[in-house]
Design a protein that fits this description.
The structure is a homodimer.
Chain A lengths: L11 H9 L3 H12 L3 H14 L7 E7 L5 H13 L6 E6 L7 H10 L1 H5 L3 E3 L8 H17 L4 E7 L4 H6 L4 E7 L13 H4 L2 E5 L6 H15 L12 E4 L8 H17 L2 H27 L2 H15 L5 H16 L2
């Protein structure tokens, strides 16, 4: 274990004690460590996570997705304040957004958008890590969930923007997946990645207030009809469609009640335990694949020739399999040098 | 190139000449070569495919999926006979079914189910390869498509059973994806893998005959309503929902007309070209990942410890990331020996 202390760096003991005591400043530094790509940070991060492991797994992990404009931040602010207030829960909000190129300025913007929640002593908001591949961001988010649980948060929200592959990653790390949709004219989920709707454990039509109320109710009916055409989820759960208004604080309690109902079902039926085990197994194998892929594509000899072969393949000059085999041979030859 | 001829084995020249002359017996042997896991077969197969490459890519590639009982074989028989008959096309039918544990007996069963089509001189039916991982089966199916095209078939059907991950693989190798559904009581796609419906370029409700006609029409309306909630596909294509009867030969022409309409759209808009390029690129990178994964999990030292670590992970004794890192370190250490 790393016991030498450097300037501005915490020791293993300071990290673990701080986290288990619920010290937010230490938690934030630990998450930064987890997000770091430096090997020595990685080693320390793994030690910390393994130490914290017995204190994890007790929270309700909720994924929330929706296209930009659906009102995710406003919803999470209202929903979060309901959880820390009336439900007396503690809440950590993490974000997955691998495309994010946010400056420090807009990270502040993120906090400002959840102004009240970010001042709440029972809530912890961690902005998206900047840049990085989906694999990397997904890995650090998964590890951050564990750290937040060890720090005592009993509710975790993973926020993701529903236009990429990130919600598939989120689906493999949460217990409940909430899809936020905007009522529109038949094109409610235009621009949304295919397949998301079938992942949802619940759908909430946002901005059901003022002039928009009727449209939202109509959209609710449409989605209710559609959702019955999908296979029911594990444990026989059928997703519910509701409407809500973050600014009028309507439909918020109903969404939480629905999550608790789902919780009871998956706990009693053993689905939760199985799901968590499957997720852990999947994380392990995905991390392996990610490591293999990273080693391959960051190999100097490979990166020199990969784009040339790719263009031969897309021009139809070489079969994809031959090109792949050439690259693999090249890669494995390096090892046996 | 392999020019030495062994007993019962064809030479490179015999393979390529036979394929380009449309000799089915040679084509079948070449596909067997492609399905083989022996390295020497693999090398020869790659040579053959690369030689054939300039003669590939001209066919219409159609994926057809549906749960067992939907009537896939009967549909493909009727649809195939329409294509080779009225449309004067040539048709190869390949199957992806990685879970298949078919004996020789049931391979025959497959042929018997498409009795008339299998006797048609303009059709070629290749039963599913037995066993093997999805990655392996997907790879050999992709290569088989190329061989069938080089042998002159201008229509390729890839059949898959819609209950696993195989249809995702199929989606990455076809131009048009047809989903067959059975009319039922609200649970039309129970048991079907989530996300399939959003992949479909068209949905056909099968067995729309006799007493079932009304139910099929009702299901059609339901799915029509549902499908408009999905984002439209590349090039602005909106999937059509139709009904059909294989035994009464109804709705078959309409499905083909729809495929041709789709074809015109994706050819003119450049979507087809882009899709094929993207698929080739994807095949290359997937083949690389598959090769890396195979090398890793077939490594002797790894296979000894992987299940032990997996159980530590699912018991919550070790973090998935630490376990993965231990395995990766072990693997890479081997190489540098």
């Amino acid at each position: 274990m790393s016991k030498t202390k450097k300037k501005n760096e915490l020791t293993f003991k300071e990290y673990t004690e701080g986290i288990l005591n619920g010290d937010r400043s230490v938690l934030s530094q630990a998450i930064t460590l987890v997000e770091s790509t430096l090997p020595k940070h990685n080693d320390l991060a793994q030690e910390i996570i393994n130490y914290c492991l017995p204190h994890t797994g007790k929270s309700i992990r909720i994924g929330i997705t929706g296209i930009p404009g659906v009102g995710k931040s406003t919803f999470i602010e209202t929903f979060g304040l309901y959880l820390t207030g009336e439900q007396k829960r503690t809440l950590a909000v993490l974000a997955i957004d691998p495309t994010s190129e946010r400056s420090k300025g807009s990270i502040m913007g993120d906090k400002v958008r959840m102004e009240e929640l970010s001042l709440d002593s029972h809530a912890y908001i961690r902005p998206s890590p900047t840049g990085g591949s989906l694999g990397g961001v997904a890995k650090s988010t998964r590890e951050s969930i564990l750290l937040c649980e060890a720090a005592g948060f009993n509710t975790i929200i993973i926020e993701t923007v529903g236009v990429g592959q990130s919600e598939i990653a989120v689906d493999s790390m949460v217990d409940f997946f909430l899809l936020l949709l905007l009522a529109g004219a038949g094109d409610e989920i235009q621009g949304m990645k295919r397949g998301i709707m079938e992942m949802a454990d619940a759908v909430a039509i946002t901005k059901a207030d003022g002039d928009n109320t009727g449209k939202a109710e109509l959209a609710k009916k449409e989605f209710e009809n559609a959702i019955h055409l999908f296979p029911s989820k594990e444990g026989g759960w059928t997703p519910e469609v509701t409407t809500c208004s973050s600014i009028e604080n309507k439909g918020i309690k109903e969404i939480w009640d629905n999550i608790i109902k789902h919780r009871g079902l998956i706990e009693q039926s053993g689905v939760l335990e199985r799901k968590r085990r499957d997720q852990a197994r999947k994380w392990m194998h995905e991390t392996i694949l990610y490591g293999l892929e990273k080693s391959f594509y960051s190999n100097e000899d490979i990166s020199k020739i990969v784009s040339e072969l790719e263009s031969e393949v897309t021009q139809g000059e070489k079969s994809p399999f031959t090109a792949a085999q050439e690259l693999l041979n090249n890669y494995f030859k390096n090892f046996s040098k």
